[in-house]
Amino acid sequence: MLGNLWVAGEVSNLRRPSSGHLYFTLKDEAAAVRCVMFRSQACRLKFRPEDGVRVVIHGYVSVYQRDGVYQLYVQEMEPDGMGALYLSLQKLKQQLEREGLFDPARKRPLPLLPRWVGVVTSAAGAAWRDILTVSHRRYPGARLILAPVQVQGDEAPGQICRALELLQQLPEVDVIIVGRGGGSMEELWAFNDEKVARAIFGCRVPVVSAVGHETDWTLADYVADVRAPTPSAAAERVFPSQQELAARIAALRQGARAAMGRRLERAAHRLEKLLSSRAFRRPDDMLNQRRQRVDELARQAAAAVVRQLELLRMRVDGHRRALENLNPEAILARGYSICSSLSTGMILRDARAVRPGEAVRVQLHRGTLEATVRRCENAGEGDAQDE
């Protein structure tokens, strides 16, 4: 709870040892607290604190172990006149950061060759002249469109927002530069306006913040896709150098020629190798070998066909003989006959199936006989029946 404090008060007992740290007491009418500001933070101060000066400081409370006392470790310090304004800016910055307006993942790259570049700045300021100078030097064919606005004062934020809205409606505008030359914190305050920050965040094309100050960052710097410390630096980022582009194209052309040369060299080597091969030196030998191989394959194929036909012929003969052996006509030709009942037509396989006096038909190899049974002898029983 004491790690992110804003405290206002009057500086007293200020000491500046050779280490560069600042030691002082911050007091008001009712209380006082010991403070220390280490050299790494003190060197960034934009004013020289003195005893009796009222300030607003940002820091945290911790224990100085040697003396066992609490003291305030100062991270930022502003004169009390700007302190309240600075405090409100820090709160707004934290809010926008929580909403994701500063997220690096949403920042877009700048186009390599922008068709038109929109500029939001004062028409009479040095920023516009600097951008024109750099663009003509780096990319003589650059096309710019200026949306003139006030860059400080109460009306500046509204004008900046309207200019951004108008420029992004032009389909040929690929990137927008918004900014001004350097100035004091009060002069740059329009670029800390919440409306300006949200207008930059909602812009459909990449935005380059070019507020002319090297150390401090405005909210426009945090929200913009690219932050440039000065308008001239913004133009350097947006406009490609014609000389650099020409050198890059020349390098690409040289690389393409070298690659094509290597490819042609490999193709020539391959062609030379093919031409020196036996197939190109004595093509008849290769053709003759192929012809001989074809003849060999033809003979082998013919022999294979003959062998296959012979095997098939042998199989057919075997099947034919088997069928002939199974043919009833062949059995009859060997002296056998088929006897059937004349009345029923049933083939007789057992003498007990007929009675003496019944008529039977006897099928011979050639012709048939009709006969009358005179005697029946049953095999294995020894009895007989006579008519």
Structural class: alpha/beta
- State the share of residues found in helices, binned by percent: 40-55%
The CATH topology of the largest domain corresponds to Rossmann fold
**Main pleated-sheet profile:** 5 strands, mixed, barrel
Count of separate DSSP helical elements: 11
The total of beta strands comes to 15
| CATH homologous superfamily assignment of the largest domain | Hypothetical protein af1403, domain 2
How would you describe this structure to a colleague?
The chain is α/β, with parallel strands linked by helices and 387 residues long. The protein folds into 4 domains: 5-99, Beta Barrel (OB fold (Dihydrolipoamide Acetyltransferase, E2P)); 113-240, Rossmann fold (3-Layer(aba) Sandwich), CATH 3.40.50; 281-324; 333-386, no CATH class. It is built from 11 helices and 15 strands. The longest helix has 44 residues, at 283-326. The termini are far apart. The model has no long low-confidence stretch (mean pLDDT 87).
Task: Throw out a few tags for this protein.
11 helices, elongated, OB fold (Dihydrolipoamide Acetyltransferase, E2P), Rossmann fold
In a nutshell, what does this entry contain?
Helix content is 41%, strand content 24%.
List the helices and strands and how they pair.
Elements: E1 5-15, E2 22-27, E3 32-37, H1 39-42, E4 54-64, E5 69-79, H2 80-99, E6 116-121, H3 126-138, E7 144-148, H4 156-168, E8 173-180, H5 194-201, E9 207-211, H6 219-223, E10 226-227, H7 231-238, H8 242-275, H9 278-281, H10 283-326, H11 328-333, E11 338-341, E12 359-363, E13 368-372, E14 375-377, E15 384-386
Parallel strand pairs: 3-5, 6-7, 6-8, 8-9, 9-10
Antiparallel strand pairs: 1-2, 1-4, 2-3, 4-5, 11-12, 12-13, 14-15
Helix pairs in contact: 3-7, 4-5
